Amino acid sequence: MIKGEIPCKAGISLKSVHYERILQEKPPVAWFEVHPENLKSGASLSIVDKVRHDYPLSLHGVGLSLGSRHLNDSHLSFLKTLCDRLEPGLVSEHVAWNYVDGVYINDLLPLPYTDESLDVLVENIQDTQDYLKRTILIENPSTYLQFAHSEYVEEEFIKEVARRSGCGVLLDVNNVYVSTCNQGGDAHSYIQTLAKSGYVKEIHLAGHKKMVFEGETFLVDHHGSAISPEVWDLYEHTLSCLDPVPTLVEWDHHLPAFDVLWAEGKKADFYREKARAAAEVTATI
Q: Per the domain annotation, does 192 fall within a domain?
């Protein structure tokens, strides 16, 4: 395996509460994902630097704000420094914005799916890839509203961004489930559109929660619980549509014991092996 290359197996989030277990016992996890924004502390970066000598790493950002009119040059420079030091196998960001006029907003905010937004995203992604000297992946968001003036459905918008910018797609299956439940879309059709595009290079899985607002129930992508049965079913469908790609299990809040998180990763591998076996049977018929 090339140094840092992410295998087509399940990885899990790398969290500070699990550092000691990982460094001491070196459990056979296939790979770990790290948020760059959590590495601005020298202590955390030093520990992750040790982890990466035993495991492939990916960087999954929340602060690049690809949907803003202008990139934050300071944050991009920080990301380049991390990439040079940690040699991640994959680098990804969100189709969202959270930075304007030098001010960060502590959330990932949605974009209208218009030609204007498309142009901004494509330019920012190309500038990022040129600066980092590598291809990045963009993740489909979880959405809670729709813009009346959008000109594309989300999956077609993301596909067009990837086509024009040359980036890949990180298909977040939980986000697809959350968004289509909230907006009334077809999750299977969404996934098939992106799967057939050939741009999907990674999958994300995570937990969500139900909330009630003004008498209406909706889902929130909160990364604070186990993956739901409905999302596992959708993941199984996703695997039937795609060539093998790495899968990452996210868990960012209400963190469980390491073994609980790792068990979710093992479950993702079980579904991956099941899909591989089914594909082999189909190929022999």
A: yes
Judge whether 265 lies within some domain. Answer: yes
Beta strands in 61-135 (DSSP E): 90-94, 97-100, 103-109
Answering whether pTM is above 0.85, one says yes
**Residue 155 pLDDT greater than 90, yes or no:** yes
In a domain, 3, yes or no: no
Q: Exposed e or buried b for every residue in 68-98, given b needs 16+ CB within 10 A?
A: beebbeebbebbeebbeebebbbbbbbbbbb
* Structural domains counted in the chain: 1
Q: Take residue 222 and report the two structure tokens written for it.
A: 């909160």
**Contact residues for 14 (Cβ-Cβ < 8 A; gap 6+):** 22, 32, 33, 34, 48, 51, 57
Per the structure, the complete domain to which residue 141 belongs is given by: 10-284
Q: What tens digit of pLDDT does each residue of 51-95 get?
A: 999 999 999 999 899 989 889 999 999 999 999 999 999 999 999
CATH code of the domain covering residue 63? 3.20.20.150
Q: Choose among 141, 144, 143: nearest CA to 216.
A: 144
Task: Calculate the alpha carbon distances from 187 to 17, 183, 237 in Å.
Answer: 34, 11, 10
